[in-house]
From TrEMBL:
Residues 27-367 form the GH18 domain. GO terms for biological process: carbohydrate metabolic process. Keywords: ATP-binding, Disulfide bond, Glycoprotein, Kinase, Membrane, Nucleotide-binding, Serine/threonine-protein kinase, Signal, Transferase, Transmembrane, Transmembrane helix. The lineage of its organism: Eukaryota, Viridiplantae, Streptophyta, Embryophyta, Tracheophyta. SUPFAM superfamilies: (Trans)glycosidases, Chitinase insertion domain, Protein kinase-like (PK-like). Residues 289-660 form the Protein kinase domain. GO terms for cellular component: plasma membrane. Its EC number is 2.7.11.1. It catalyses: L-threonyl-[protein] + ATP = O-phospho-L-threonyl-[protein] + ADP + H(+); L-seryl-[protein] + ATP = O-phospho-L-seryl-[protein] + ADP + H(+). One of its GO terms (molecular function) is chitin binding. This is non-specific serine/threonine protein kinase. The chain crosses the membrane at residues 384-406. Pfam families: Glyco_hydro_18, Pkinase. The keyword Iron does not apply.
Amino acid sequence: MVSRIAIIILFHVFLSLNSHPAKAQAWIKAGYWYYQTDLPLSQINSTLYTHLICAAAGLNSSSYHLSIPSSYVFSAFTKTVKRKNPSITTLLSIGGWDADYSTLSAMAGNSTYRKSFINDSIKTARQYGFQGLDFSWLSANTSDNMDNIGTLFEEWRAAIALETRNSSLSELILIAAVQLSPTLDPGSFPIDSIRRNLNWSHVLAYDYTMPEDDNITAASAALYAPDSDFSTDSGIAALINEGLPASKLVLGLPFFGYAWKLANPNENSIGAPATGPAVTQEGDMSYKLINRYSKTQGAIGPIYNSSYVANYVIVGSDWISFDGVDVVRIKVSYAKKKALLGYVVWEVSDDDNWVLSQAAGGVDSGGGVELAGGVDHKRPKSRILIIIFTTTAAVIILLGLAFYFIRIRILNSKRFVEMEWNIELVKMEPLSFCLLPFRAPCIFCSGILGGDIKLADAYRLDSLLSDMTDPIRRYLLDWKKREEIIEGITQGLLYLQEYSRLTVIHRDLKANNILLDGDMKAKISDFGMARIFAKDEHEANTDRLVGTYGYVPPEYVRRGQYSIKSDVYSFGIVQLHIISGKKNGSLYGSDESLSLAEYAYELWKDDRGMEIMDPSLDDTFSSCKLIKCLQIALLCVQENPADRPSMLEVSSMLRNETAIVAIPQRPALSVKTDEDDKNRRDRLPSEICSVDDATISQVVGR
């Protein structure tokens, strides 16, 4: 059967190679379109591009939500450009040179602001029909800026992955612009975060020199620079040397140039003395304007300089440097030779009758130029080459098929092991606090469960989240009931982590996965993302993030690291939700900038912990118990997993009225960093309160 499939595939490959000899791999041909340009949307020739980027959304300085400058234009962008090219991919650009530095800096440096920005960017992209997001903070220039950008990319990618997993939509593309500059060290960029979290990066390989800054004429986007240490070639090499793979770099092409005013019209080569900008206020000119100015003013040129790979024209004392058709072709050939992912232009409306766009799109993988109506004679047509490609394809396909069937056997074996674990877990006692991970349990497990656990009934239970947010039903949950719920969850996690034969990490513990039966007894549900450890294992890493944003700990979002302390962190958030009745994910405090955990910490720190209590509770005599539960919850959401208690310690603190509860530090992902927290912790006395009014059976291992 395998050989038949391989023969059929090889036959089609052979036909394809005969019909299209040495056809190049599809690669990125991207272009920015600025919304205030004089080129209407309907006139964009989208057939010349694979990706078009609408520029640019701003950022609100108070909410850190996106600011769309023209809702009508941005909402029509995708639909309009897809009329000529249905396969075009559209992206929304955020930032650019016009973006406010202080607003972007504040957003990137604050976890709460980052979360607000990330969630709104995803929502806006979906709302306006974009298939990806482009981040262009071109003014970032400090080490703190770069570190914060790296963290932003990590959290952004995690949020996009979670949004995709929780919907039927394709995953959004995430890219960013990287500005090459003689004054900026390529090593200062967050290389590792870019490599791991972005689909690719736009390398803006221009604006190296400008008439406002330099009083000598220059090729502002020089591919090579014989008299300088910096050029596009050296910048690309530096990025690759720092760890960014060439396959994630897209070369920026400028469809514009700069005009200098020559100090002496007789000295008019690259490097000639100049007095400043010419023609326009800052000297910048679109390729379209350069062409028209040259024709009407009787320019000399264009002149091609092969040392720099640049064009320039001379109009009297005006000297204009730019990338013409021949330069664009050479740069695209260079990008292919260096195995880059493609090219991106700024910006499409600067082109003159699509001449540069066509030149860029006409360069194939061998460096030949496809002329309109002609044939590229550099493409190999030899039968020997076809046989080599066919043989190579055959080997790759056979290896792929072998790998596929081996992988299927491994996965089936793994599923069988997991099924055995599920069955074993059902047999364990006690399980009154846990529901199992089967999605259709009534059929599969009816013979195993017997009369101990009615899993079908459990699926009819109301979620804790529903009970806590319903304004009428939450009054049924007095403080004693909530204590029992907290204790029930604690015992459930304690069993999974300590007393089960295998250590079980839930990985998606949240209020919506805590179910209540008719007696308001808590049960942990939905083990579909759970992982099991042997008793001598402590932590693991993953490249695929799962869970619910806001409940997963920082080490999981940033490094993919999870352990039993991951569930402890999630438990702390759930506990704060039970105590306060407030939703996780909303912002609190006087300026509405604090997460639920940090808001609770601020109140506890100021001895105002009772203010976090759900207003529906009037059990004022239980204040000591509530404060102790609050303090334990804050210990569970510490930044460092080592600072969080184990569930065994949590159980001891909850049940033992003489237990000493440690003083928590600030929660993970906090906005504020108070210098006097340590001094205050040294002065704060520990309280001993009775929290053992509720009677709950002790969990023991079998």
